[in-house]
Amino acid sequence: MFLNIDVDGDWLNRGMRFRRFTEFILNEKYAGSKKEEIMDKGKNLEDFYNIFPWDSEPESESGKAYYEFTGKMMELALPPEVLKGIKKKNLDILEVCAGAGFGGVALGEYLKKKGFRVKLLMTDLRGDALERARKFAKRKGLEVEVKVMDALQLKNLKQKFDVVLFWGLSTPHFNPHELLRLFSSFAHLLKRGGFFIMDEADRRGSIFLKTGYKFALGEERGGRFVMSFHTGYNPYTGMFRRRYVSPDGSNFVQEIYLWGIAEVSAMLSVFFKKVKLLDISAHYIIVSQNPFTGISPENIKEPVIERLK
Ligand SMILES: C[S@@+](CC[C@H](N)C(=O)[O-])C[C@H]1O[C@@H](n2cnc3c(N)ncnc32)[C@H](O)[C@@H]1O
Fold this sequence. Notes:
By secondary structure, this protein is an alpha/beta fold. The chain has a domain at 9-201: Rossmann fold, CATH 3.40.50. It has nine helices and eleven strands. The chain has helices at 9-29, 35-51, 61-77, 80-83, 102-113, 127-139, 176-189, 203-211, 261-271; strands at residues 90-96, 117-124, 143-148, 161-166, 190-201, 216-221, 224-234, 239-245, 251-256, 272-280, 283-291. The strands form two sheets. Strands 3-2-1-4-5-11-10 form a seven-stranded mixed β-sheet, sandwiched between helices. The protein has a four-stranded antiparallel β-sheet with strand order 6-7-8-9. α1 (9-29) packs across α2 (35-51) and α3 (61-77) packs across α5. It is globular. S-adenosylmethionine (SAM) is lined by residues 45, 54-55, 97-100, 102-103, 124-126, 129, 150-152, 167-170, 173.
């Protein structure tokens, strides 16, 4: 999925900064397949998020607004009447693709206010974002651990969790084969009675129908703006290859999958008996319970491609 890029001096410096953070965390908390592979994937994501307008600083104005919004979403996902049904007081939470930790910290703070004792494990491939997530969680008084790991290697986690959280519209990083594997892992990682929570958008509607997509797409968030241009498509994985260009001229290639809410909720219904979809003005929260664990991530194989002349 990830492509090599030419690095200029500035990117190289950022790369070294990233390496220091990630090496630091990996030394202690390494949980994945090959260390170098994880470092490369993480470095690629770090470069991408340096120009893509996504909040990764909890103390910034837009970061605070995103955190507040996320807190309200968590209350909708697990409202007080649902919390009343949880008999235990100690909850283990796993956040996958946590970035700077907005989702996990918001959920942790909410549950703590409601009288639960929360242990939070946040994972991502970006070590520097996780370091911010760890400090953020500490400032909120939460018991926290972070792990640099590939979400596609969740089988390396031996623990089970009361809540598995996949927050922040992270699905475009995964092709359908990978997302199925992820959903299967989430089902396997839940304790009995546990909850899986994610948010999702309908990109087919919002991008293809409302905006138009093919040649240029502008995206703005928290006062940051980026344009992206179509540069390629892989029909076997469904991944679009786009070049992202920021107003300061820096640019970066990334492969993404434009998920819609229909296929994401349909795929989840294979792994969970109950899939609830909350529509909050075209931002969706999905809460799933009662996992089916018959299909393991290893059972989900990519197709064998045969080209006929
Ligand atoms: C849209 S951001 C969401 C971040 C955060 N959850 C939030 O709400 O701000 C997607 C995150 O997924 C992470 N990511 C992408 N592919 C990943 C993978 N294969 N394994 C682990 N993390 C990944 C990125 O580094 C990024 O932090």
